[in-house]
Specification:
The chain is mainly alpha-helical. The chain is built from 20 helices and no strands. The protein is globular.
Amino acid sequence: MRSLKDMIRHSPVNLLYDEARLPHLIRRSLNMILLANIFGNLFGIICGGGTTAMIGLANELGAGDFAFGILNGIPQAAALLQIPFSMLVSRTQKRKKYMLTLGVFSRALWLLFGFIPLIFPQSQGSLGLWSLIFLLGISSCVGSVINVCWFPWFSDLAPIGIRGRWLSFRDTVMAGVNFIFGLGVATLLDTLPPESRYIVIFLMGGTVGVLDMVCFGFCKETYSTPPRKMKFFAIFKEVWKNKPFMRLVIMWTAWCFTANLCGAYLGRYAMNEMGLSFTQVMIFGTMSASIGTMLVMTQWGKALNRFGCRSVMLVAGIGAAVTPIFFLLSTPGSVLPMFLHNFIGALFWSGTNLSANSMQLSYSPDDARPSYIAVFACITALVGTALGTMTGGALLEMWDQAGWFAGGFDKYMALITLSVVLRLGITLLLVPSMENDREGTPGQLVRAFVGCFRRFRISFRRRA
């Protein structure tokens, strides 16, 4: 039986480090970034616009569909500040300082969220909801520095040859941790007294968020390029001239818009219309997605290295686009539509996210990567995610006021159908024109996956 030390030494991530011949200090830094990403992902389970905790808190404060869309859109709209923050980081090269000050402050504000219903109950009108919007806005604006620090930091530490596999390993680990943590959060939401449940949950969320930032204090701060002073309009001009990167920006912005048109409302629909509990939404939503991600993420990482980002994006994008259709089969109390959407959807959207992250690194030059990533995040978050979410909320309220879709095919099902059609069209129209970093084709990728599935089925039958 192998010792724990031997198992760690031969773990997939350490084998990647051995392959790249990384020194001890870089290995430790990448491990701390991995730990930070895990804490950050746990933070996202609680402290995100569409999480079960935020859905419950928004309901507690009387938020309608459009107000809920605003709550989901604020963190994305705040991404606009990533551009000036990226200019600051490129000029000063003080990532660690910003993560341990602005980043910690942004995450620590979430410790206060759970106290809002206690201080401003729904009987006092919309004061509590506006307080939530205000705190969320401050946290999101200050936290805009986080993305432009950590992702370029990671790319400066990790050689390009192992980045895709490192990210797929990270996503697999996070999916497993999500399962345990998410189940615990849902159980607390269902069992804690109503007057204290959000206090406890958001204290937990704020704590893991702060730990995410603290981990970067133990990372080696390294830069692949010297300090660079950049001008606002010069950044956009430079990015605009990079055609492969701009194709990625346009495609991913359109993808985010069509996905978030209904995506932010699926959990709310499951809780409010289908009558599912916090635990059911967490198990058949977040947990199912985590299991799906764990099962397939390493295969997407291999496919990325073999067939290229464009091939993965096209195949995974088609699959992810159609999975919300399962919600059209929903009935009160039924968990199957949510399970199918999240489990099967995760098999595909994990591939789209991985390829999008890899494309950002591949298409952006080393000396201007923070600015490129900031422009990417700004446009996709603001025009894609934020505008898509708020458009979805506006459509839901408009249809409700007009009395449309009042029968079995309700307003949420209409929005889901519209989102599926648009997202599938975007994938088929925009992805094929993007550049591929490998010689493999989508057809070869599909055949490889089919062959892998057949071998697994034969092996399973023999064991049975």
